[in-house]
Amino acid sequence: MSMKPGIRLWSKVSSVSVVVVRPAAGEVTLTCGGVPMIEHEPQNAAATAEGEGPLLGKRYTDEDSGLQVMCTRGGAGELAADGRPLQMMNPRPLPASD
Amino acid sequence: MDASILLKMVADVAPERVAVGPARSGLTYAGLLSRAEALAGGLSGLGVDHVALVDVNSALVPQLFYGASLAGLPFVPLNYRLADDALRAALARIAPAVVVVGEEQRDRCAGIDGVTALTASQLPAGGLERVGPGDVSALLFTSGTSGEPKAAVLRPAHLTSYVLSTVDLLSAGADEALLVSVPPYHIAGISSLLTSVFAGRRILLLPSFDPAAWVELAHAEAVTHAMVVPTMLGRILDVLEAEGRTLPALRHLSYGGGRMPLPVVERALRLLPHVDLVNAYGLTETSSTIAVLGPQEHREALASGDPAVRARLGSVGRPLPSVELQIRDENGRTLPAGEPGEIHVRGGQVSGEYLTHTATDAEGWFPTRDRGWLDAAGYLFLDGRADDVIVRGGENLSPGEIEDALLAHPAVADAIVFGAPDVEWGEVPVAAVVLRLPAEEAELRDFVRARLRSAKTPARVLVRDALPHTDTGKPLRRVLRAELLASLS
User: Fold this and answer.
1) Hey, where are the domains in chain B?
2) CB-CB under 8 Å, B256 with A57
3) Pfam families, from UniProt (chain B) (predicted)?
4) Cβ–Cβ of A97/B166 closer than 8 Å?
5) What is the mean pLDDT of chain A?
């Protein structure tokens, strides 16, 4: 699975799409709802994923591999790297400064 | 990932929201993206390595920035106020390049090998074939207060790291509008574009700063947010006071980009009591803000009876959570709170890279060349540029402190202090002043001596009609030093 920064990945089982912000240190498989994500937008993504998925605009990370992705389209199905659920990064909003 | 991905996300979720320009007739996020894509197609067919801009601010700037980003090309906004030879030398350095010019700038940018000058209407449009981020997002020339301007290299990861660690997607209310009055070649011009787009905050661009025009546009477009450099704020307050206006829609005003005199902050708090003030400190090389003093901290400092808390009004606040900051001495030793030294920073948004060299060390720490110190609670106080420190008989003097003392004199309208060579002391402070009332040199020197002490008293006070500043108001001490040296030799 190509993990260059900026690469967009799509879920095969829901509307979820993410962009890689920081690649993993080694080879990992990113899944949504347990199914590996793919590098091209599926023609007809199944809507079979269940459970709460990522939220639009939020970043998710896998501490073990260093992988960091940002959700560009929300939907169902938990994100996981090699089976490890990704954690949402807690935003620390700052006053606008520029 | 690069900045254009952030725009695509916003255009995907809020395509009809206005991104740039008047609320009724401005360009939407979908419109901005489609214009940028068309420009990217044209730009990528030109066979150039850089997309430069020599013009005042306009709605074209965001389109061109994202267009260059989509084409994988660095955006290089240049200072249109540069002298012809400096401007042409900068352009020659980035060839092969296309330079987008205003009508008045066209002839000045013509006839340079490998550089094609085009006005906005001459820009080709085309279908975009090349995809994927370029290696460099922007080349920005530093203001050059303590040396010749350097071309800072900002890569996609620096800019996106800054945006993602400071802003939430579409976190701005639908009524929010930001007035941008810094020029397009200033880092805040770039960073305000990036953070506003990601937050979904409409941007209004002032072609070039004029205090009356600023107040007029802020009023007409019900501007809620603005960022200004210190000299702008003083002049805006003058207009508000003279015209008795209060800008009721404005609720958030950030300032930065130079030393802000305390009396101006206090005046702003008094004239605009309904406005949240934010002081931001950052550098071109750090993709903008690395420390902020927030609205609540301003109010607490102003209301506090504790001198240490009160003093924070003169600080630049605390470092961003995503940035590490240390004060170090000249031997690289990390200093404890209270001790002044050079500010070093590290973080995802910190570049520290120039076209010619990289200033960061192996661990990623960037020496800012700014001097400062942290108080016990972690608030950062600035103490001028490291290169501006005057070493008199082994003692370090800060020119800013002496300038403040001179400015407290009713006759002094402007003052810049710099170090001049001296046989006895090695270096001594010399002041150049602009007077609004007649005053003798001896009187001004006595005035400083009474407030500071004799070591900090200027050896000479030169009276000038005007003093050299960068166009965002930073003092150009090196120009005065060179003039004095030339007059002595």
Assistant:
1) 3-208, 281-386, 389-488
2) no
3) AMP-binding (PF00501), AMP-binding_C (PF13193)
4) yes
5) 90
